[in-house]
């Protein structure tokens, strides 16, 4: 099955580079390009891509607003958004995740990491890189809850084991890593993650990680 990708970046040279990397893969096809968020929305409607590789800062409409239209509550189709960022734009990544992005990747990431991220997002999972996640959370430590705030009522619907799993997801651990940490099977972890998402009304593990920090369940620097 071929993964249909739309490239969205206001720098033509970067789009060309991404196209060359992706089109070398047999299971990925670049179906179009866009230079701003408004054009991206038009291309998504016309081309119906599976994954949108989205830049953040662009003219007319930025990547956050475009992501909100593509992946938010009133989304037009099934396209997943993978946000491209630099450390200088961390604050925009947080907004993009809230807007519905399925993950984020550094612009200077190795080619194979880009390819893998697109496959992960296309499969319906989230690209939550632990190193970038920790960098974001450290930067926003002062703005995040301290853990002393009242715990949201929805959190009480989780079992103790589901809370454990949510904490590990928030740290950026994969299902395999969580399974090793809790001495259970990956299948069991996947079931727990599914229950957590359903009970909290979340779309994927990226939103689960954001929820864990914003609710005060997990604090930056905590292990």
UniProtKB/TrEMBL annotation:
It comes from the Bacteria. GO terms for biological process: phosphorelay signal transduction system; regulation of DNA-templated transcription. Residues 151-216 form the HTH luxR-type domain. Residues 4-122 form the Response regulatory domain. Pfam families: GerE, Response_reg. InterPro entries: CheY-like_superfamily, NreC/VraR/RcsB-like_REC, Sig_transdc_resp-reg_C-effctor, Sig_transdc_resp-reg_receiver, Tscrpt_reg_LuxR_C, WalR-like. Keywords: DNA-binding, Phosphoprotein, Transcription, Transcription regulation. GO terms for molecular function: DNA binding. PROSITE patterns: HTH_LUXR_1, HTH_LUXR_2, RESPONSE_REGULATORY. The modification 4-aspartylphosphate is found at residue 55. This is Response regulator.
